[in-house]
Predict the structure.
Amino acid sequence: MAIFFCFLFFLISSASACDRCVHQTKVAYFSKASALSSGACGYGSLALGFNGGRVAAAVPSLYKNGAGCGACFQVRCMNTSLCTKQGTKVIVTDLNKNNQTDFVLSSRAFRALAYKGMDQDILKLGLVDVEYKRIPCVYKNQNLAVRVEETSHKPNYLAVKFLYQGGQTEIVAVDVAQVGSPNWSFMTRNYGAVWDTERVPTGALQFRIVVTSGYDGKWIWAKNVLPADWKVGAIYDSGVQITDIAKEGCSQCDDGSWK
């Protein structure tokens, strides 16, 4: 375990940019919301309902091979005559392969950058200068949820994805076991937010999840999640929520000016 946490600390401290810093870039937008429903995170059409449809595709350094799926960012346009000071919050649901912009926003998120009544003006620009930083995700009255993917089939294969992850963390490991059993099977990140295993325990299932927290990692225990008769396509309440904030081994960069 100590080796794992040392490796995790290396991953955090060697990041190319600190999440807590304010960054500047340009953002564009998808003209059709459906473009994000087939995103690299695997959320599918569920993505269209996240955060009122204010979602985004992020560059690889923020997508983090899928670990950045579900991360929340505050983005604000730097055109003060057109855009509000607070900007908008977006949730990462896809991978942006265009290295000219850190994000490509849904049109709803892009319009939300502007003052009321000026959303069509910002759409006409198509590309705007912004600043952004990562912020904690907050889901009021909503626990971390587990969705059983359609590719799952008993008793040989289970694929799940995690929804509504709070806090400011990444999921870096997942294990599954029968409720009450000490025999855990590790799961592998298939892609994006989807984890799977071919060693499926029988009966009702519990999960233990390692998330980045502080300067190391933290176990999150969800003790009774999937019933014995779990169904593909169903979403199950984990009974827990993540509120932790990951720390980064890099120099201080937040001067408190971001509000």
Remarks:
- The radius of gyration is 19 Å.
- The chain has two domains: 23-135, 145-237.
- The domain at 23-135 is CATH 2.40.40.10 (Barwin-like endoglucanases).
- The longest strand covers residues 216-226.
